[in-house]
Amino acid sequence: MRGGNARTGQLFSYVDLEDRVRKNHSLRAIRQIVNDTLVSLEREFAGLYSSIGRPSIAPDQLLRSMLLQAFHSSRSKRLLMERLEYDLVFSWFVEIGFDDPARNHSVFSKNRDWLLKGDIAARVLSTTLPPPKVKRLLSTDHFSVDGTLIEAWASIKSFKPRNGSGGPPSDGGGRYVEADFHGERRSNEAHASTADPDAKLYRTGRGKEAKMCFMGHGLMENRHGLLVDARLTEASGYAERVTSPHMIGPFTGRTKAITLGADRAYDTKDVVKDLRSMKVNPHVAQNVNGRRSAIDGRTTCHPGYGVSLRMGKRIAEAFGGIKTVAEQDKTKLRGRGRVGWAFTFAAASYNLVRLPKLMTDAS
Predict the structure, then answer these.
(1) I want to staple 312 with a disulfide (CB 3.0 to 4.6 A). Which of 75, 81, 144, 147 is the partner?
(2) How far is CA 293 from CA 142, 224, 236, 259, 306, in A?
């Protein structure tokens, strides 16, 4: 017989969220890695909060919620809190009780700011990699590095002279006045954004649109394409070359030389010299467009050189996940520190999505 639509609500609920999530759910393996990571971060959490005052949202719940936002491309904290109200899987992952309401989105944002003050994002990225099941997946000899632009939360109209003079001509008053910047020469030395002073005006090439940007950098191990380091700097033509030796430095304390793959932007004498002085073989793509490459036959004659160039292209997959899925293509934060925190945290979320499958295939 056809059933009715009668509801069977009870005064008391005895439902265990653990039983409502299927055993093969993709978030189960991620949740186990996150649990181990958060246990190792207890000391860092204790240093961020005072021992007196009103209790805040648990930092564990904040980080779990932010991971879900990165996994599922939630556009805002308001939508994230709304989904926590009705999605049992979200409540189970964040460890909110079946009868517990989700937090107010503004309260969540204010409590999140406490985590932005610490180096928690970098610790989450580094702490997920040392466990034995994960460490055996990583290459210790072959790496790749690259950079990508992160558009700042600032419009081109906010890019004004530092002395406050020389504004562009306009055709009227008001806040949203139409301004004509044609013919006006602007530079990062003489101008700055009033919305985000840390952002820099940058363009990728001739004829390209100039935008207010930061530059994100990623260091990838070549075995499975996992990010082992992520940083954010000011956007400039030298940022990639200056940052790469600092990123590979912690991995050079070995008697055996390692390799670092990179694209043509890193083909300069200074970068190649610095890497070789650190016992790093620079597997950098040759730039012979009207110039002489700093990479000679000592490097290109090895079969591993071509392998590094092919594997290095996989870092674009990581940047695609960070900018598209985690929605860091245009950040919603301001200030280099806060934007860098979000970029590094998005890199950690990218690793967490890929680790369960890699661990299963390796077992």
Answers:
(1) 144
(2) 22, 29, 21, 18, 16
